[in-house]
Amino acid sequence: MRWSAWHGLGLFWLAVAGIIGGGAVTLQVLGPPAPAHHDAPASSAAPAPLAEASLPHAVPAPAPPAPPAVADPSVAGPDPALLERSRGFPQLMLPKVAADGRAARIAYAAPAPPASNLPRIALLLAGFGQSARDSGTASETLPGPVGFAVSTYAGNPAPLIEAARARGHELFASIPMEPQGYPLNDEGTRSLRTGLTPEENQTNLEWALGQVQGAVGATGASDGMRGERFAELSAAFDPVLDEIGRRGLLYLDPRPGRPAARPGTRAVDLVLDEPPARAEIEAKLASLERIARDRGSAIGLIGPPRPVTLERIASWARGLQARGILLVPISSLIETAHE
Protein backbone atom coordinates (compact mmCIF):
# COMPACT_ATOMS: atom_id res chain seq x y z
CA MET A 1 0.00 0.00 0.00
CA ARG A 2 2.82 2.39 0.85
CA TRP A 3 4.63 1.59 -2.39
CA SER A 4 1.45 2.26 -4.38
CA ALA A 5 1.16 5.79 -2.90
CA TRP A 6 4.75 6.67 -3.79
CA HIS A 7 4.25 5.15 -7.20
CA GLY A 8 1.15 7.35 -7.83
CA LEU A 9 2.94 10.48 -6.63
CA GLY A 10 5.81 9.81 -8.99
CA LEU A 11 3.49 9.41 -11.92
CA PHE A 12 1.84 12.75 -11.00
CA TRP A 13 5.13 14.70 -11.04
CA LEU A 14 6.15 12.97 -14.23
CA ALA A 15 2.93 14.23 -15.90
CA VAL A 16 3.51 17.78 -14.63
CA ALA A 17 7.01 17.79 -16.04
CA GLY A 18 5.69 16.59 -19.37
CA ILE A 19 3.15 19.37 -19.51
CA ILE A 20 5.76 22.02 -18.66
CA GLY A 21 8.13 20.66 -21.25
CA GLY A 22 5.42 20.60 -23.91
CA GLY A 23 4.49 24.19 -23.16
CA ALA A 24 8.08 25.28 -23.54
CA VAL A 25 8.32 23.56 -26.92
CA THR A 26 5.08 25.22 -28.00
CA LEU A 27 6.38 28.67 -26.98
CA GLN A 28 9.55 28.10 -28.95
CA VAL A 29 7.51 27.25 -32.04
CA LEU A 30 4.77 29.89 -31.82
CA GLY A 31 6.64 32.65 -30.09
CA PRO A 32 5.41 34.74 -27.15
CA PRO A 33 1.76 35.86 -27.13
CA ALA A 34 1.01 39.36 -28.44
CA PRO A 35 0.55 41.93 -25.68
CA ALA A 36 -3.09 42.65 -24.86
CA HIS A 37 -4.55 46.13 -25.58
CA HIS A 38 -7.10 46.49 -22.88
CA ASP A 39 -8.12 50.04 -23.92
CA ALA A 40 -9.05 49.15 -27.55
CA PRO A 41 -9.69 45.40 -28.17
CA ALA A 42 -9.59 44.51 -31.82
CA SER A 43 -12.99 42.87 -31.65
CA SER A 44 -14.72 46.03 -30.36
CA ALA A 45 -12.72 48.88 -31.97
CA ALA A 46 -14.97 51.69 -33.29
CA PRO A 47 -14.56 52.70 -36.96
CA ALA A 48 -12.55 55.87 -37.64
CA PRO A 49 -14.79 58.95 -37.75
CA LEU A 50 -15.63 60.35 -41.20
CA ALA A 51 -14.03 63.62 -42.18
CA GLU A 52 -16.44 66.49 -41.58
CA ALA A 53 -16.30 67.56 -45.20
CA SER A 54 -17.66 64.14 -46.24
CA LEU A 55 -20.84 64.57 -44.24
CA PRO A 56 -23.74 65.86 -46.35
CA HIS A 57 -24.83 68.41 -43.79
CA ALA A 58 -21.32 69.87 -43.54
CA VAL A 59 -21.09 70.95 -47.20
CA PRO A 60 -21.75 74.72 -47.35
CA ALA A 61 -24.16 76.10 -49.92
CA PRO A 62 -22.30 77.70 -52.83
CA ALA A 63 -22.17 81.48 -52.50
CA PRO A 64 -22.89 83.72 -55.50
CA PRO A 65 -19.67 84.62 -57.31
CA ALA A 66 -18.35 87.91 -56.00
CA PRO A 67 -17.33 90.51 -58.57
CA PRO A 68 -13.63 91.36 -58.66
CA ALA A 69 -12.67 94.03 -56.14
CA VAL A 70 -12.27 97.53 -57.54
CA ALA A 71 -8.62 98.51 -57.16
CA ASP A 72 -9.37 102.19 -56.57
CA PRO A 73 -12.95 102.90 -55.49
CA SER A 74 -12.53 106.67 -55.29
CA VAL A 75 -14.46 109.07 -57.50
CA ALA A 76 -12.56 111.61 -59.60
CA GLY A 77 -12.41 115.17 -58.34
CA PRO A 78 -13.52 118.26 -60.27
CA ASP A 79 -11.88 118.62 -63.69
CA PRO A 80 -11.30 122.24 -64.78
CA ALA A 81 -12.05 121.22 -68.37
CA LEU A 82 -15.58 120.29 -67.25
CA LEU A 83 -16.30 123.61 -65.49
CA GLU A 84 -17.26 127.11 -66.50
CA ARG A 85 -17.96 130.24 -64.49
CA SER A 86 -21.58 131.20 -63.92
CA ARG A 87 -22.63 134.53 -65.42
CA GLY A 88 -25.24 135.19 -62.78
CA PHE A 89 -23.01 134.05 -59.89
CA PRO A 90 -19.34 134.77 -60.76
CA GLN A 91 -18.17 133.00 -57.60
CA LEU A 92 -19.76 129.71 -58.73
CA MET A 93 -18.52 127.17 -61.26
CA LEU A 94 -21.01 125.20 -63.35
CA PRO A 95 -20.62 121.84 -65.10
CA LYS A 96 -20.18 121.75 -68.86
CA VAL A 97 -19.29 119.24 -71.57
CA ALA A 98 -15.59 119.51 -72.40
CA ALA A 99 -14.35 120.45 -75.86
CA ASP A 100 -13.32 116.82 -76.42
CA GLY A 101 -16.81 115.56 -75.56
CA ARG A 102 -16.13 114.40 -72.01
CA ALA A 103 -19.09 114.85 -69.66
CA ALA A 104 -19.67 114.79 -65.92
CA ARG A 105 -21.94 111.74 -66.15
CA ILE A 106 -18.89 109.71 -67.23
CA ALA A 107 -16.00 111.55 -65.60
CA TYR A 108 -17.47 111.52 -62.08
CA ALA A 109 -19.11 108.09 -62.17
CA ALA A 110 -18.00 105.62 -59.52
CA PRO A 111 -16.33 102.41 -60.74
CA ALA A 112 -19.00 99.80 -61.46
CA PRO A 113 -18.57 96.03 -61.08
CA PRO A 114 -18.21 93.96 -64.27
CA ALA A 115 -21.32 92.94 -66.15
CA SER A 116 -23.27 90.23 -64.33
CA ASN A 117 -26.59 88.44 -64.51
CA LEU A 118 -27.20 89.14 -60.82
CA PRO A 119 -29.94 91.64 -59.89
CA ARG A 120 -28.59 95.10 -59.06
CA ILE A 121 -29.64 97.74 -56.55
CA ALA A 122 -28.53 101.36 -56.20
CA LEU A 123 -29.28 103.81 -53.40
CA LEU A 124 -29.31 107.61 -53.15
CA LEU A 125 -29.01 109.36 -49.79
CA ALA A 126 -30.44 112.89 -50.00
CA GLY A 127 -29.79 115.75 -47.59
CA PHE A 128 -26.06 115.08 -47.43
CA GLY A 129 -24.34 117.97 -45.67
CA GLN A 130 -27.32 119.10 -43.58
CA SER A 131 -25.85 117.52 -40.45
CA ALA A 132 -22.06 117.28 -40.41
CA ARG A 133 -22.15 114.50 -37.84
CA ASP A 134 -24.76 112.31 -39.54
CA SER A 135 -23.29 112.99 -42.99
CA GLY A 136 -19.84 111.99 -41.76
CA THR A 137 -21.30 108.79 -40.32
CA ALA A 138 -23.01 108.08 -43.64
CA SER A 139 -19.75 108.51 -45.54
CA GLU A 140 -17.88 106.21 -43.15
CA THR A 141 -20.43 103.43 -42.69
CA LEU A 142 -22.35 103.14 -45.96
CA PRO A 143 -20.81 101.19 -48.85
CA GLY A 144 -19.14 103.19 -51.60
CA PRO A 145 -21.80 102.52 -54.26
CA VAL A 146 -24.38 104.50 -52.23
CA GLY A 147 -24.70 107.94 -53.86
CA PHE A 148 -25.11 111.23 -51.96
CA ALA A 149 -27.27 114.17 -52.99
CA VAL A 150 -25.63 117.26 -51.51
CA SER A 151 -27.99 119.72 -49.86
CA THR A 152 -27.91 123.14 -51.53
CA TYR A 153 -28.27 124.70 -48.10
CA ALA A 154 -25.35 122.85 -46.48
CA GLY A 155 -23.14 125.20 -44.48
CA ASN A 156 -19.66 123.86 -45.26
CA PRO A 157 -19.93 120.68 -47.30
CA ALA A 158 -16.43 120.73 -48.84
CA PRO A 159 -14.69 118.47 -46.24
CA LEU A 160 -17.62 116.05 -46.28
CA ILE A 161 -17.65 115.99 -50.07
CA GLU A 162 -13.94 115.20 -50.28
CA ALA A 163 -14.22 112.39 -47.74
CA ALA A 164 -17.23 110.93 -49.55
CA ARG A 165 -15.50 111.11 -52.92
CA ALA A 166 -12.42 109.31 -51.53
CA ARG A 167 -14.63 106.46 -50.32
CA GLY A 168 -16.27 105.99 -53.71
CA HIS A 169 -19.61 107.79 -53.20
CA GLU A 170 -21.06 109.43 -56.30
CA LEU A 171 -22.31 112.98 -55.79
CA PHE A 172 -25.54 114.52 -57.03
CA ALA A 173 -26.56 118.17 -56.92
CA SER A 174 -29.90 118.66 -55.19
CA ILE A 175 -32.26 120.98 -57.09
CA PRO A 176 -34.82 122.52 -54.69
CA MET A 177 -38.18 122.58 -56.45
CA GLU A 178 -41.72 123.44 -55.41
CA PRO A 179 -43.09 120.41 -53.51
CA GLN A 180 -46.58 119.18 -52.77
CA GLY A 181 -48.23 121.28 -50.09
CA TYR A 182 -46.49 124.53 -51.08
CA PRO A 183 -46.33 127.11 -49.48
CA LEU A 184 -46.73 125.17 -46.22
CA ASN A 185 -43.86 123.04 -47.51
CA ASP A 186 -41.26 125.46 -48.82
CA GLU A 187 -37.84 124.67 -50.29
CA GLY A 188 -36.54 128.19 -49.77
CA THR A 189 -36.02 131.35 -51.77
CA ARG A 190 -33.77 129.62 -54.34
CA SER A 191 -36.25 126.89 -55.23
CA LEU A 192 -37.64 126.43 -58.71
CA ARG A 193 -41.35 127.33 -58.61
CA THR A 194 -44.33 127.22 -60.91
CA GLY A 195 -45.04 130.92 -60.31
CA LEU A 196 -41.61 132.13 -61.48
CA THR A 197 -40.58 133.09 -64.99
CA PRO A 198 -38.34 130.75 -67.00
CA GLU A 199 -35.49 133.21 -66.53
CA GLU A 200 -35.92 133.22 -62.76
CA ASN A 201 -36.01 129.44 -62.64
CA GLN A 202 -32.90 129.30 -64.84
CA THR A 203 -31.10 131.59 -62.39
CA ASN A 204 -32.10 129.41 -59.43
CA LEU A 205 -31.06 126.27 -61.32
CA GLU A 206 -27.59 127.70 -61.94
CA TRP A 207 -27.30 128.60 -58.27
CA ALA A 208 -28.19 125.05 -57.24
CA LEU A 209 -25.82 123.39 -59.73
CA GLY A 210 -23.00 125.64 -58.58
CA GLN A 211 -23.19 124.43 -54.98
CA VAL A 212 -21.29 121.20 -55.67
CA GLN A 213 -18.54 120.65 -58.21
CA GLY A 214 -17.76 117.21 -59.54
CA ALA A 215 -21.34 115.91 -59.41
CA VAL A 216 -22.27 113.05 -61.71
CA GLY A 217 -25.86 114.23 -61.89
CA ALA A 218 -28.71 116.18 -60.34
CA THR A 219 -31.90 115.23 -58.52
CA GLY A 220 -35.09 116.84 -57.28
CA ALA A 221 -34.60 115.13 -53.90
CA SER A 222 -33.75 117.98 -51.56
CA ASP A 223 -33.83 118.08 -47.77
CA GLY A 224 -36.67 115.59 -47.41
CA MET A 225 -38.79 117.05 -50.25
CA ARG A 226 -39.10 115.91 -53.86
CA GLY A 227 -40.38 118.86 -55.93
CA GLU A 228 -43.49 117.05 -57.15
CA ARG A 229 -45.56 120.15 -57.87
CA PHE A 230 -42.95 121.80 -60.06
CA ALA A 231 -42.03 118.57 -61.88
CA GLU A 232 -45.68 117.94 -62.75
CA LEU A 233 -45.72 121.11 -64.86
CA SER A 234 -43.91 119.99 -68.00
CA ALA A 235 -43.72 123.52 -69.42
CA ALA A 236 -41.55 124.47 -66.45
CA PHE A 237 -39.76 121.17 -65.86
CA ASP A 238 -38.75 120.25 -69.42
CA PRO A 239 -36.38 123.23 -69.81
CA VAL A 240 -34.72 122.19 -66.55
CA LEU A 241 -34.12 118.67 -67.90
CA ASP A 242 -32.81 120.20 -71.13
CA GLU A 243 -30.30 122.30 -69.22
CA ILE A 244 -29.19 119.42 -67.00
CA GLY A 245 -28.63 117.19 -70.02
CA ARG A 246 -26.84 119.96 -71.96
CA ARG A 247 -24.38 120.29 -69.09
CA GLY A 248 -23.53 116.58 -69.24
CA LEU A 249 -25.35 115.49 -66.08
CA LEU A 250 -27.62 112.57 -65.25
CA TYR A 251 -30.98 113.20 -63.62
CA LEU A 252 -32.51 110.98 -60.94
CA ASP A 253 -36.21 111.68 -60.45
CA PRO A 254 -37.19 111.25 -56.78
CA ARG A 255 -40.83 110.52 -57.65
CA PRO A 256 -41.16 106.71 -57.46
CA GLY A 257 -42.17 104.81 -60.56
CA ARG A 258 -42.03 107.64 -63.09
CA PRO A 259 -41.04 106.52 -66.59
CA ALA A 260 -37.74 107.80 -67.90
CA ALA A 261 -38.41 111.17 -69.52
CA ARG A 262 -35.39 110.89 -71.86
CA PRO A 263 -31.95 109.24 -72.06
CA GLY A 264 -29.84 110.04 -69.03
CA THR A 265 -32.81 110.10 -66.65
CA ARG A 266 -34.44 107.55 -64.37
CA ALA A 267 -36.83 107.57 -61.41
CA VAL A 268 -36.36 105.85 -58.08
CA ASP A 269 -38.47 102.78 -57.39
CA LEU A 270 -39.06 103.24 -53.65
CA VAL A 271 -38.60 105.80 -50.90
CA LEU A 272 -37.24 103.66 -48.07
CA ASP A 273 -37.55 105.80 -44.95
CA GLU A 274 -41.07 107.21 -44.94
CA PRO A 275 -41.62 106.95 -42.03
CA PRO A 276 -38.04 106.64 -40.67
CA ALA A 277 -38.83 103.65 -38.43
CA ARG A 278 -36.80 100.44 -38.21
CA ALA A 279 -39.60 98.05 -39.17
CA GLU A 280 -40.74 100.22 -42.07
CA ILE A 281 -37.24 100.58 -43.45
CA GLU A 282 -36.62 96.83 -43.30
CA ALA A 283 -39.93 96.11 -45.04
CA LYS A 284 -39.12 98.60 -47.81
CA LEU A 285 -35.65 97.10 -48.29
CA ALA A 286 -37.23 93.66 -48.72
CA SER A 287 -39.61 95.16 -51.31
CA LEU A 288 -36.68 96.77 -53.13
CA GLU A 289 -34.98 93.38 -53.37
CA ARG A 290 -38.12 91.86 -54.89
CA ILE A 291 -38.29 94.64 -57.48
CA ALA A 292 -34.64 94.09 -58.38
CA ARG A 293 -35.20 90.34 -58.84
CA ASP A 294 -38.31 90.93 -60.97
CA ARG A 295 -36.90 93.71 -63.17
CA GLY A 296 -33.16 93.17 -62.98
CA SER A 297 -32.45 96.42 -61.14
CA ALA A 298 -33.97 98.86 -58.65
CA ILE A 299 -33.11 102.24 -57.11
CA GLY A 300 -34.05 103.30 -53.59
CA LEU A 301 -34.13 106.80 -52.08
CA ILE A 302 -33.33 107.60 -48.45
CA GLY A 303 -32.63 110.75 -46.48
CA PRO A 304 -31.93 113.01 -44.93
CA PRO A 305 -29.39 110.92 -42.98
CA ARG A 306 -30.63 109.73 -39.59
CA PRO A 307 -28.95 107.28 -37.20
CA VAL A 308 -31.69 104.64 -37.50
CA THR A 309 -31.63 104.83 -41.30
CA LEU A 310 -27.87 104.64 -41.56
CA GLU A 311 -27.66 101.68 -39.17
CA ARG A 312 -30.36 99.71 -41.01
CA ILE A 313 -28.92 100.40 -44.48
CA ALA A 314 -25.39 99.47 -43.43
CA SER A 315 -26.58 96.21 -41.83
CA TRP A 316 -28.73 95.30 -44.85
CA ALA A 317 -25.93 96.00 -47.33
CA ARG A 318 -23.48 93.66 -45.56
CA GLY A 319 -25.60 90.61 -46.44
CA LEU A 320 -26.74 91.67 -49.90
CA GLN A 321 -24.05 89.82 -51.86
CA ALA A 322 -24.82 86.59 -50.02
CA ARG A 323 -28.46 86.95 -51.13
CA GLY A 324 -27.36 87.13 -54.76
CA ILE A 325 -27.81 90.87 -55.37
CA LEU A 326 -25.17 93.46 -56.27
CA LEU A 327 -25.06 96.97 -54.82
CA VAL A 328 -23.93 99.26 -57.65
CA PRO A 329 -23.46 102.99 -58.30
CA ILE A 330 -26.51 104.89 -59.51
CA SER A 331 -24.79 105.94 -62.74
CA SER A 332 -24.55 102.29 -63.81
CA LEU A 333 -28.37 101.98 -63.78
CA ILE A 334 -29.21 105.09 -65.82
CA GLU A 335 -29.16 104.56 -69.56
CA THR A 336 -27.71 107.34 -71.66
CA ALA A 337 -27.62 108.01 -75.36
CA HIS A 338 -24.51 106.82 -77.17
CA GLU A 339 -21.57 108.95 -76.09
Molecular structure report:
This protein is of the alpha/beta class. It has a single domain (83-333), classed as TIM Barrel (Alpha-Beta Barrel), CATH 3.20.20.370. It is 33% helix and 13% strand. The chain has helices at residues 2-30, 104-107, 132-141, 158-166, 198-209, 228-232, 234-246, 278-295, 307-318; strands at residues 83-85, 93-95, 120-128, 147-150, 171-174, 217-219, 250-253, 265-267, 270-271, 297-302, 326-327. The strands form two sheets. Strands 3, 4, 5, 6, 7, 8, 9, 10 and 11 form a nine-stranded parallel β-sheet that branches. A two-stranded antiparallel sheet has the order 1-2. Helix 3 packs parallel to helix 9 (307-318). It is globular and about 50 Å long.
How would you describe this structure in keywords?
339 residues; alpha/beta; TIM Barrel; two-stranded antiparallel sheet; 11 strands; 33% helix
Explain the layout of strands and helices.
Blueprint: H1 2-30, E1 83-85, E2 93-95, H2 104-107, E3 120-128, H3 132-141, E4 147-150, H4 158-166, E5 171-174, H5 198-209, E6 217-219, H6 228-232, H7 234-246, E7 250-253, E8 265-267, E9 270-271, H8 278-295, E10 297-302, H9 307-318, E11 326-327
Helix pairs in contact: 3-9, 8-9
**CATH fold field value:** TIM Barrel
Based on CA atoms alone, the radius of gyration comes out at: 38 Å
List unreliable stretches of 5+ residues. Answer: 1-61
Q: How do the helices and strands follow one another from N- to C-terminus?
A: HEEHEHEHEHEHHEEEHEHE
Largest sheet: 9 strands, parallel
- The fraction of residues assigned to DSSP E strands is 5-15%
Distance between the termini: 135 Å
Total beta strands: 11
* Apparent shape: globular
- Do you know the CATH architecture? Alpha-Beta Barrel
Number of domains: 1
By CATH, the superfamily comes out as Glycoside hydrolase/deacetylase
Instruction: Write down the CATH class.
Output: Alpha Beta
Q: How many helical elements?
A: 9
The average pLDDT score comes to 84
State the secondary-structure class. alpha/beta
Fraction in helix: 25-40%
